[in-house]
Design brief:
This protein has about 170 residues and is of the alpha+beta class. The protein has one domain: Peptide deformylase (Peptide Deformylase), CATH 3.90.45.10. Helix content is about 20%, strand content about 35%. It has 2 helices and 6 strands, in the order H-E-E-E-E-E-H-E. Strands 1, 2, 3, 4, 5 and 6 form a 6-stranded antiparallel β-sheet that branches. The longest helix has 16 residues.
Length: about 170
């Protein structure tokens, strides 16, 4: 399928906890392709979660390849039913989101993570991520929990109007 539209607040699906993916089948693999296509079609995008394209299941794609703030980089990956196994060292940094395109904010996130999930092939995958890749993974997992970055900003004065969204 081609890229799907990215939903914006106040769409209710963005504030709901997503359901686990029951099994990795053709529908799950098709969703993975849609997530990848939507991310690739969205300028400056490093991740998309299934609820952002209207599907309330626990799946996301991330790719921080070439991002100046990335240290670890596992390339493009899709995870179903992700869970954080270990998290270290929260640091606040600026984030934005395609579902809240007019704002950015300072959000505390762990700087190192170990995350586990299923691949589109149904294989268990464990990733150690850090820096910007860790931030991107946590941001996408928040979407699966019905949270947006604006729910995690450090304070009201840590939320900013975006001047330009590319």
């Amino acid at each position: 399928m081609p890229a799907r539209p990215v939903l914006r607040l106040p769409e209710p699906v963005l504030k709901r906890v997503a359901e686990p993916v029951a099994r990795i089948d053709d529908a799950a693999r098709s969703l993975a392709v849609d997530l990848i296509d939507t991310m690739r079609a969205s300028p400056a995008c490093v991740g998309i979660a299934a609820p952002q394209i209207g599907v309330s299941v626990r799946a996301f794609v991330v790719d921080v390849t070439g991002h100046k703030k990335a240290k670890s980089c596992h390339g493009e990956f899709v995870l179903f039913n992700p869970e954080i196994l270990l998290a270290h060292g929260p640091v606040a940094a600026r984030e934005g989101c395609m579902s809240v395109p007019d704002l950015t904010g300072d959000v505390p996130r762990a700087t190192r993570l170990v995350v586990r999930g299923l691949t589109p092939e149904g294989e268990d995958r464990v990733l150690s991520v850090d820096a910007f890749e860790a931030r991107a993974v946590q941001h996408e997992i928040d979407h699966l929990d019905g949270l947006l970055f604006i729910d995690r900003v450090t304070s009201g004065d840590a939320l900013f109007r975006r001047k330009v969204y590319r």
